[in-house]
Amino acid sequence: MSNPTRRTLISGALGGAAGVVVGRELAPTAAGAAADVDRSEFDALKARVAYLEQFHPPMPPAHKFSGDVSLPDGFVVPFGEVWDFDPDVSTSVTVGKNVVVAGTLKMRPANPGVVHTLRFTGITETNYVGGGMVPLDTDVGLWVIGAGVLDLAGSSKTSWARTSQSISAGATSITLAAAPVGWEAGDTLAIAPMADCNVSENHNRYSTVTVQSVAGNVVNVTACQQAHPLVTVGPSFTVGAEVMNLTRNVRIEGTPTGRAHVWSNSSVPQQISDVAIRYMGPRKSGKNVLGRYPLHLHMSGNGSRGSTIKGVVVRDSGGRAFVPHASHGVTFDGCVAHGILDEPYWWDGGGVDATDDVVFSKCIASAVQASPNYSGARLAGFFLGEGQRNTIVDCSAFGVWGGQSTAGSSGYHWPEGATAAWTFARNIAHNVFGHGLTVWQNSGIVHDVHDFVCFFNGRTGLSIGAYINRYRFRNGYLYGNAYASIDIHSLSSEADHEARYESIHMDAFNYHAHPVRISRNALAGGIVDVIGCTFARHTGAAIGHIPGGNDSTPTRIDVVDCTPDPSVFFGAGAKPESMIRVQNGASATVWTPAGPTPIATFSTATVNPPTPFPVVASA
């Protein structure tokens, strides 16, 4: 028989958001009267109560967990109640079934020496079903429903910091650009790969070390397995390696052979900080299970506005990491995703799945893989999906192991079907097996992308398609990318000069012939501008049109005040009508497959040189 008290508490949680008491049928609506709740919403809420009614594990005798606690049948936190882990005692709660939170689950250690762990064990991933709007017994994990709250706050800790000095292989100390907060002996650090493209598997040259002691901005560690040099990406612009601290004293985890998940459809904001989530994100039949991700805010709509996910680490995930799916107004600050299968920062496509007002600030995507390795044509560290007023700033992506095709793996990817513009500034992509940044859109919307660095990527710095768009890239540094600095697949949409590459420093590092490579054009479009760019250490003409087959439409590019004065190369298959106009100062030339011809100057564009910008030192 069900527990009436628990039913009342849980029902209040679920009904409160909708303005109804769930647990009894809606009375018939009088003619001409408006229903107080949508019938489909009511049915969904009622289904959750039905689930909880039949899900009644033994209730713990107290609502404070302390020490080692085993609850094989999981537990439910009812509406109106706060269940907490003893703040003064290291506490580990092990469960074998669902944890459902309709009230508040609190994990707040009083000091760094106290560790709180919620661990899911005995999971069979092939039992997972996935999808839907209600908890499922088959899909074991942490579920937050109604107005439920996860009040999770580990001890404050610098999530990651950047090096200020090069690190040699075997080194036992690391000098950081800023003194880290909360780093302690025993913490696990992962240091980003910084090897150039001459080094095999340069995307996987990590060092994983253990902290021995900390003195200011110098961290003494066990021996580094790899070298991690500073990289000078342009004049007066040097970038250090990202050093990620993977240790937290609030932990939610599965096991290496049985991964669980965190799913929140709460109607209220969540505040989660300094938490480590490990061995989550189950897989089935070689794929991630739909909706069962390490931290999934699922269709909370405006209820999630004001949520902050700060300093959270997701590692060793079988399927993604941070998924704000149709959950608006969430800020991810200083989060780290490391050792992730599939895109770590992601949500479903547009329409009802779009997400608005998300901020990714100072976040890291690291060691991102597909299954099998080196597959995943459009695998990305950050999948910049559909939604309004979304922002990504001061982030880094590296160690992405997907494919190397035209629209292959990348640090940041603007996918087809997602057309809204993002605010994008001061982001870095390096040591990716494929590209730094990729675009695969046909769009008439203006996208401004500025202040970016892409270095030592296995394919290109920028790979921009699909056929026509209005992307404007400004003030970037593309250094030592293997195949090209920029690979352009798209012409300008709407009108001439709407697609632009301005004030970009391109150092080929003697890897490639053409810093600006124009590939085959499939659709007619307007003139693309390349303005105020600088070229260094390339082995051929700075501008190369290499169709790789017969062009469907002529190429049209304007190159204005780039240095040194660029030459142009046309490969086989270029349309005879293709033209690349080059203007430097008071002289101008038009290049066609037939050769160069002097012409009158044609552009009055304002030219600014590439300018170094501040790179975040720590988060």
Topology, please?
Elements: H1 4-16, H2 39-54, E1 64-65, E2 68-71, E3 75-77, E4 82-85, E5 91-95, E6 99-101, E7 104-107, E8 116-120, E9 142-144, E10 149-153, E11 160-162, E12 173-175, E13 188-191, E14 207-215, E15 218-221, E16 231-234, E17 237-239, E18 242-245, E19 250-253, E20 262-264, E21 271-273, E22 276-278, E23 283-284, E24 287-288, E25 295-301, E26 308-310, E27 313-317, E28 322-327, E29 331-333, E30 336-341, E31 359-361, E32 364-369, E33 380-383, E34 390-393, E35 396-400, E36 410-414, E37 422-430, E38 435-440, E39 446-455, E40 460-465, E41 468-479, E42 484-488, E43 491-492, E44 499-507, E45 516-518, E46 528-531, E47 534-536, E48 543-545, E49 556-560, E50 568-570, E51 579-584, E52 587-592, E53 595-599
Parallel strand pairs: 1-4, 2-5, 3-6, 4-7, 5-8, 6-9, 7-10, 8-19, 9-20, 10-21, 19-22, 20-25, 21-26, 22-27, 25-28, 26-29, 27-30, 29-31, 30-32, 31-34, 32-35, 33-36, 34-37, 35-37, 36-38, 37-39, 38-40, 39-41, 40-42, 41-43, 41-44, 42-45, 44-46, 44-47, 45-48, 46-49, 48-50, 49-51
Antiparallel strand pairs: 11-18, 12-15, 13-14, 13-18, 14-15, 16-17, 23-24, 51-52, 52-53
Helix pairs in contact: 1-2
Report on the structure:
- This protein is mainly β and 619 residues long.
- The protein has 3 domains: 4-26 and 37-149, no CATH class; 160-245, no CATH class; 250-599, Pectate Lyase C-like, CATH 2.160.20.
- The protein is built from 2 helices and 53 strands.
- The strands form 6 sheets. The protein has a 29-stranded mixed sheet that branches.
- Strand 16 and strand 17 form a beta hairpin.
- Helix 1 (4-16) runs antiparallel to helix 2 (39-54).
- 53% of the residues are buried.
- Residues 1-42 have low confidence and may be disordered.
